[in-house]
Amino acid sequence: MKRQSDTKKGVLTGPSQRQLRAGELIRHALVEILREEELQDEALQNISVTVSEVRMSPDLKHAICFVEPLGAGLTGQDAAKNTGEIIKGLNRVSKFLRGRLGRSIDMKFTPDLKFIHDESFGTAAYMDKLFLDPRVQQDTRRLSDVVDDEDEA
């Protein structure tokens, strides 16, 4: 999670425990709602969505939901276009999801929802691909040899 800077002390601080708890509560509730509800938007028909993270504003009135669409059935350029349509569809039905969320969680305010594509899955796949590169494996073997030599000394 990206750290917020505290201008008073010049120290980096993260989200509060309250924000983290509320984000997890909303994430779990959203997963259940998306699993059970049949959403009427055309872009969301027969699509499964993974909600990987929910970041809450300090006042808990706004939630940014990081999602990864699954089952789009497309690859390459079409997948990116389809993912964009799915995210737009989720943002179109966000008021409906907010209403369902209000019934399933016990919070003073039900936050406004904004959906964003989670890029971390693509980044992880890219890193896995890099680690399979023979040149990188050669470097990691050299590094492990150096570490083993230091342990023996």
UniProtKB/TrEMBL annotation:
<dbReference type="GO" id="GO:0043024">
    <property type="term" value="F:ribosomal small subunit binding"/>
</dbReference>
<dbReference type="InterPro" id="IPR020053">
    <property type="entry name" value="Ribosome-bd_factorA_CS"/>
</dbReference>
<protein>
    <recommendedName>
        <fullName>Ribosome-binding factor A</fullName>
    </recommendedName>
</protein>
<comment type="subunit">
    <text>Monomer. Binds 30S ribosomal subunits, but not 50S ribosomal subunits or 70S ribosomes.</text>
</comment>
<dbReference type="GO" id="GO:0030490">
    <property type="term" value="P:maturation of SSU-rRNA"/>
</dbReference>
<comment type="similarity">
    <text>Belongs to the RbfA family.</text>
</comment>
<keyword id="KW-0963">Cytoplasm</keyword>
<dbReference type="InterPro" id="IPR015946">
    <property type="entry name" value="KH_dom-like_a/b"/>
</dbReference>
<dbReference type="InterPro" id="IPR000238">
    <property type="entry name" value="RbfA"/>
</dbReference>
<dbReference type="InterPro" id="IPR023799">
    <property type="entry name" value="RbfA_dom_sf"/>
</dbReference>
<keyword id="KW-0690">Ribosome biogenesis</keyword>
<dbReference type="Pfam" id="PF02033">
    <property type="entry name" value="RBFA"/>
</dbReference>
<dbReference type="GO" id="GO:0005829">
    <property type="term" value="C:cytosol"/>
</dbReference>
<comment type="function">
    <text>One of several proteins that assist in the late maturation steps of the functional core of the 30S ribosomal subunit. Associates with free 30S ribosomal subunits (but not with 30S subunits that are part of 70S ribosomes or polysomes). Required for efficient processing of 16S rRNA. May interact with the 5'-terminal helix region of 16S rRNA.</text>
</comment>
